[in-house]
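hey m, so remember when u said the tokens were messed up on ur end? i reran from scratch. heres the input so u can diff it against urs
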Amino acid sequence: MAGIYLHIPFCKTRCIYCDFYSTTRSEEKNRYISALCRELQLRKTYLGDEQVETIYFGGGTPSQLTRQDFEKIFNSIEKEYSLEQCKEITLEANPDDLTPEYIKELSSLPFNRISIGIQTFNEQTLRLLKRRHTAEQAIRAVKECRLAGFQNISIDLMYGLPGETVETWEADLGQAISLNVEHISAYHLIYEEGTPLYEMLLKHKVEEVDEESSVKFFALMIERLAQAGYQHYEISNFCKPDKHSLHNSSYWTEKKYMGCGPSAHSFNGNTRQWNVSSLDQYIAGIEDGSPVIEIEELSITTRYNDYVITSLRTMWGLSLKHLKEKFGTELVQYCLYNAKKHLDTGKLEIRNDTLFLTKEGIFVSDGIMSDLIWVED
């Protein structure tokens, strides 16, 4: 089974923290969609015989597209790929785009999962981040999606925001839980170099939260969401039982996926490739029949490192049996040798021949993964 990711790079405005590839040049939308459909045609053999299980429209802001735009894309997908086994089709959306009229249009399309970028319910912080929506719009958007029949709704939150306290983070968590959505993704704010927020940090217009506060926010999130019945199935992701993101889980479970659109990444088991991060170069390359891409051949140690980093992030853990079958005895021994100190301190555990982070280990997961990966001499 495999997934298709479609990058929709258009945004009305740029959020000050975002470093994903995006553009406000909406006048190029029609030409871009034609190129995206052409790429789907050009790459129809990329996934081999794998059945498409998931489709994910990410961005940018996919909710900037119209019903007619989506219909054109879906027609191209259905023409080139078999969707008989497709279980999950996700649309990322901004709350202010999700008017009752727009949601009604979405409900008539193949989407069966909506991912809403809320980030916070704190009005002051929303304005600081240059988000286009208000807390009221975010709450209303979730409720309107539910009324329209969507039974799989995810929301994105951020923590570690400028000026955040335990009280404001707890308020965000409480509001999120009260919406009773199926899935919550929550990421710590990162000050990415080159973003306006990073420049504000350099000029001391905002301050990063300290490490102690970050740990408190993370611990509080785990505790509150567990009490509300959410499974902590990946370091930054929580879901109601059986409602984990099938598409995102493919990134952590070695499934093949094809990314279309500027900056989109793909993985076919042996190589990774990614499209150019430029709207103009992307469109020109597709129109000429020569996509502008880079390809990385994955060595056995690179694939081992990828497996360690992705599998340990999840509730499914790192299968030692799979490790041996795929990478050989030497790398299993290397992994266990470097895992020993974390097993001894209770940050890792082995159950059913599978290596897992413990609750304590999750808080230092980056360091543990770094210890287990293979470092070339």
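this time it looks ok to me. The chain has a mean pLDDT of 95. if urs says something different then somethings off w ur setup not the seq
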